Amino acid sequence: MIPLSYMGRLVRGGERLSYGHYAVDAPTWQALWHTSEVALPMLSFWADERRAYGLFLEGDQPLLVSTAIDDKRYVGPSQRYPVAEWGERVAFDLYGVEAMEVPGDGRSALDGGAWDITWPLSQRPGPGGNHGGAPKVSKAPLWIDGNGVTGVFGLVPDMQQGGIRAEQCEAGLGHRGVTAQLLGRTPEEAMGLVARMSAGGYVAYPLALARALMQAEGRRIEPALRDSWMVLLEIERVSLHLHDVMLTARAMDAGVLAAHCTHAREALARVCVENGATRRLTDMIRKDGYRRGVEIVPLAQAVLREMKPRLSKLALLVDVYAPRLAGLAVLPVELARGLAIGGPVGRSSGRSLDLRRAENGMRLDALRATGASAGDARARQAVRMTEVFDALRLIERILGSFGLGEADEAYPAIPNVTDQEGVGAAESARGDVWAWVRLRDGRVDAIHMRDPAVPLLAGLGRIMKDVEVAMMPLALRSLGVSTAGVAQ
Amino acid sequence: MKSRTISLVEAFLDVRRWRARSVASGGCTQLPIGLYFLETGSCEGCAMELEALCGGAYALEQNGFRRVLQPEDADWLLVTGAVSRRCAERLDQVWRAMPAGRSLIAIGRCAVDGGPFAGGYATLGGLAGLTRVQRSVPGCPPEPAAILAALVAFREGKAA
Ligand code: SF4
């Protein structure tokens, strides 16, 4: 048992709403951002019209705190946690709730003046366009196509000082209103939509939500299902890492490495199809199971057979081209810790967090410490390759004891609490995905999906500080930046 | 155990060996068609499949296509994703920057009709709601092989 931090004690002084979720009053909420004590890492911040929420990591467990929003205003956490700024801006665009005492300039995250209604999720949306409440929009020219991000990301290079003007970059151009569509749906319907939140997590996103629903609905997870989900997540990790290594390779003209990655990834897709799964593992995760007709053990065996012989050449090629990436786009470890940047990007800087280590039934001996700390593009490429090896090793270990061990017991109902709530997470290839859901009358009453790119984008200005414009696409490729789950 | 040098040579030879053969009957002798990819707001799955299509495992160039990085060099515009309201203007700009004779192709369900992101305040749906789309590749996401087969069919005058 880890000793409770000061923040942990403050939060737990509030009213308990569910497992690990406490409601605090406005003075306590404010005190969280002003304490001089060592702060817990913040994973995510979001708000709707009624409440503001902060999700923290305490040890390896989530801790959620929320407070009521009064008169559409609340004290914003970004004064202490820069990672919260994105959530504050999103909350304003969607609900018109305003963060007070924050350093940001109130610039629009998603709307950008393009919607025909303002605050579309609030009780009283306003007209779109240029009225008093319309969002502030940056007019900086954006570099979008070919900047190194697969999705829609408006990059603003700083031509005078070098690096980028992070405060003017646009990550919300591809917003598609997913939260609005999720509200009021049944959990099964929500799973289907969340499964298309980001191609960087066709397994991880719905898995995080499935775990949150397990908690909300008080269901237990049998070891065989837990193992099946782990196997699917590891196959996805291999596929995504190959994709990101391939894009990085292509951006540095390492055609041979790119070709090997592409062939390996397409072979993996073929094996998945041959064993009843979908090519990229779309629609595999159900809220209490996985796609019917798939047999996980033969699938896992076929993946091992196909991928293991390819590893030595892939590793060799990654190593051969590594010098081209040395020193590029360095993420310092204190920044990774401060913003809770995870995944291979965080781990290559020395922030070792990997949520898989805390999972019940995990075969820990398969997961090595990466030992990386340089935080540059070279370290990221090497860590991804190491994690491909480890993912296959983990699948092998799981096959060795498939379905054994204790079940994850259901969370018992909390006395006097009627809402069903849950938090779930999955360590995706690009970092930790978190899901929080509240059900009312069997439907989604509130939901939040946290994408691992949110903290990464919060630190992008510093990471790209010394990167020349010509090298930006390579730097962004090496970071695996994607906006699909950020813009939602 | 093989030496590093031998393994490296093998890795290079693999790539030559893999060089995919043309899927078109008799190969392609015409000038390559320039393809410009545009993402407009989605899960990025279709955009990732287009990246895979360019990765050497598929015979894109052998079939007479090349990816271009400027709309001015493009013959065909391949759109992925539902058209978010903030991307609509950019879509129009890219389209106008392309030379005459251009063609618009919707890749994946989102680009056709908005897919799971149709409706609501944030998107205009897919291209079908904005213009007449004669060429599209269905799927969520479509496979690179299916995209390539469709491109070849379009070039040969067959609509999807
Ligand atoms: S069609 Fe499917 S895979 Fe393609 S962008 Fe839309 S949701 Fe993603």
What features would you describe in this structure?
In chain A, helix 9 (296-307) packs across helix 13 (377-400). Chain A has a 5-stranded mixed β-sheet with strand order 1-2-5-4-3. Chain A is of the alpha+beta class. The longest helix of chain A is centred in the middle third of the chain and has 29 residues, at 223-251. Chain A folds into 2 domains: 6-108, NADH:ubiquinone oxidoreductase Nqo5 subunit (Beta Polymerase, domain 2), CATH 3.30.460; 201-479, Cytochrome-c3 Hydrogenase, chain B, CATH 1.10.645. Helix content of chain A is 38%, strand content 14%. Chain B has one domain (30-155): Rossmann fold (3-Layer(aba) Sandwich). In chain B, 32% of the residues lie in helices and 14% in strands. Chain B has helices spanning 4-18, 45-53, 88-97, 109-113, 144-155, and strands at residues 33-39, 65-67, 76-80, 103-107, 135-137. Chain B has a 5-stranded parallel β-sheet with strand order 2-1-3-4-5. Chains A and B meet through helix 4, helix 7, helix 8 and helix 10 of A and helix 1, strand 1, helix 2 and helix 3 of B. Iron/sulfur cluster (SF4) binds next to helix 2 and helix 4 of chain B.
Summarize the structure.
Chain A has 488 residues and is an alpha+beta fold.
How are the elements arranged and paired?
The complex is a heterodimer of chains A (488) and B (160).
Chain A: H1 6-12, E1 15-18, E2 21-23, H2 26-34, E3 42-47, E4 51-58, E5 61-68, E6 73-75, H3 85-95, E7 98-100, E8 117-118, E9 126-127, H4 178-182, H5 187-194, H6 204-217, H7 223-251, H8 255-274, E10 285-286, E11 289-290, H9 296-307, H10 311-321, H11 333-339, H12 343-347, H13 377-400, E12 420-428, E13 431-440, E14 443-450, H14 453-458, H15 460-463, H16 472-479, H17 484-487
Parallel strand pairs in A: 2-5, 6-7
Antiparallel strand pairs in A: 1-2, 3-4, 4-5, 8-9, 10-11, 12-13, 13-14
Helix pairs in contact in A: 5-6, 7-8, 7-9, 7-13, 7-16, 8-9, 8-10, 9-13, 10-13
Chain B: H1 4-18, E1 33-39, H2 45-53, E2 65-67, E3 76-80, H3 88-97, E4 103-107, H4 109-113, E5 135-137, H5 144-155
Parallel strand pairs in B: 1-2, 1-3, 3-4, 4-5
Helix pairs in contact in B: 2-5
Iron/sulfur cluster is lined by residues 42-43, 45-46, 80-81, 108-110, 115-116, 140-141 of chain B.
